[in-house]
Write a structure and sequence with these properties.
Elements: E1 2-5, E2 7-11, E3 14-29, E4 35-40, E5 47-48, E6 53-57, H1 60-95, H2 101-133, E7 136-138, E8 143-145, E9 155-156, E10 164-179, H3 180-189, E11 200-204, E12 216-220, E13 230-237, E14 249-255, E15 260-266, E16 271-273, E17 276-282, E18 288-292, E19 294-296, E20 303-308, E21 315-319, E22 333-335
Parallel strand pairs: 1-22
Antiparallel strand pairs: 1-21, 2-15, 3-10, 3-14, 4-6, 4-9, 5-8, 6-7, 8-10, 10-13, 11-14, 12-13, 15-20, 16-17, 17-18, 17-21, 19-20
Helix pairs in contact: 1-2
């Protein structure tokens, strides 16, 4: 026989919604140049740092293109230098009246062509260097990387799709839709002056347990979905242990305003019959007594708030309810609330 003493706890008005976890940042890695995938430099599912090398695409063709473009720059520079020498020579001849202006104009035009050719060759070199740099794929953000979708040795290109995905998991977002009716009810209850800092947000996981960290309201969308008449609301949660995962379905509990003290008993202590809800209490003489109770709002799925019928400190039976009857003398072992 196990009993728990009735305890007073703070109760805050709350609302429950269905939400979905969303990574704060999410990046799909893609190839920007064509080539065979030579290396994968990470462990799938591991944390990566911004700038960390992840994939290497074969470099041979792109390195050759850089060398060829560099040679073009050298050749264009030599041509420009020669054109400059010829312009200086013809300018001197014109000053001495032994050269013609037409010849000077001709070599000046060729100097301009050589200058333009040099600029084009430099642009080609810059493009070749960019493409060579694209053969090294690094992490654009810090986060956790998923599995590699393409194995080393395969040919990749921009059309190959996502090579791998990186998500930033700490902190993390939770998105949940709120109807216009619920928003209006909250505003009326708070006189229209509710502030985001007054809302405390918790998560209930698939197994019914509560996530250890509380969240804060981060964003309320500026438009209403015409299909569902809801507004998308986003909360931010710390996720240091990576417990929450992108795409995970959770229950969002939003507590509003200031709390009030209320009596709580474990959920398994509450019984019901045709006359309503009741609990079994062990009095000071160690006898079982039936107490009709009235429940109130504020339960968390583990405990139930009691509005009437009990006093703080009374002992309610939580285990062995089926083995006792009113008036029976019992020996009970007491456990702390929540144990």
């Amino acid at each position: 026989m196990t009993v728990v003493r009735v305890a007073a706890e703070e109760v805050r008005p709350s609302a429950t919604f269905t939400g979905r976890i969303e990574a704060k940042d999410k990046v799909d890695l893609r190839a920007r140049v064509d080539g065979f995938l030579e290396k994968r430099l990470f462990t799938e599912g591991a944390d990566v740092k911004e700038g960390q090398p992840l994939f290497v695409i074969e470099k041979g063709l792109y390195q050759a293109a850089v060398n060829q473009a560099a040679a073009g720059v050298e050749q264009a520079q030599a041509t420009l230098n020669l054109a400059g020498i010829e312009v200086d020579r013809q300018s001197e001849l014109v000053k001495r009246n032994v050269g013609t202006q037409a010849r000077l104009d001709e070599v000046t035009g060729k100097q301009g062509e050589a200058r333009g050719s040099l600029l084009a060759q430099k642009a080609a070199l810059e493009k070749a260097q960019l493409q060579l740099g694209y053969t090294d794929i690094a992490a654009p953000i810090s986060g956790r990387i998923g599995r590699s979708n393409i194995s080393v040795g395969n040919f990749v290109s921009a059309a190959s799709g996502t090579l791998a995905t990186i998500v930033r998991q700490d902190p993390i977002y939770v998105n949940f839709p709120v109807t216009q009716r619920e928003i209006l009810e909250v505003r009326k209850a708070q006189g229209g002056d509710g502030k985001p800092s007054e809302y405390t947000i918790f998560l209930r996981l698939a197994d019914g347990s509560r996530y250890a960290q509380s969240g804060r309201l981060d964003f309320v969308d500026v438009t209403v979905s015409q299909g569902t008449d809801t507004v998308l609301v986003r909360a931010e949660f710390p996720n240091p242990d990576r417990f929450l995962v992108d795409g995970q379905l959770v229950t969002v509990i939003v507590e509003l305003g200031r709390g009030e003290s209320a009596l709580h008993v474990p959920q398994q202590a509450l019984q019901a019959d045709q006359s309503g809800a009741y609990v079994l209490v062990v009095d000071n003489d160690s006898k079982v007594e039936v107490r009709r109770v009235e429940t109130g709002p504020g339960g968390d799925g583990i405990t139930i708030a009691i509005r009437k019928g009990l006093e703080e400190g009374e002992r309610v039976i939580t285990e062995g309810v089926q083995k006792v009857r009113p008036g029976q003398h019992v020996e009970a072992s007491e456990v702390k609330p929540g144990a």
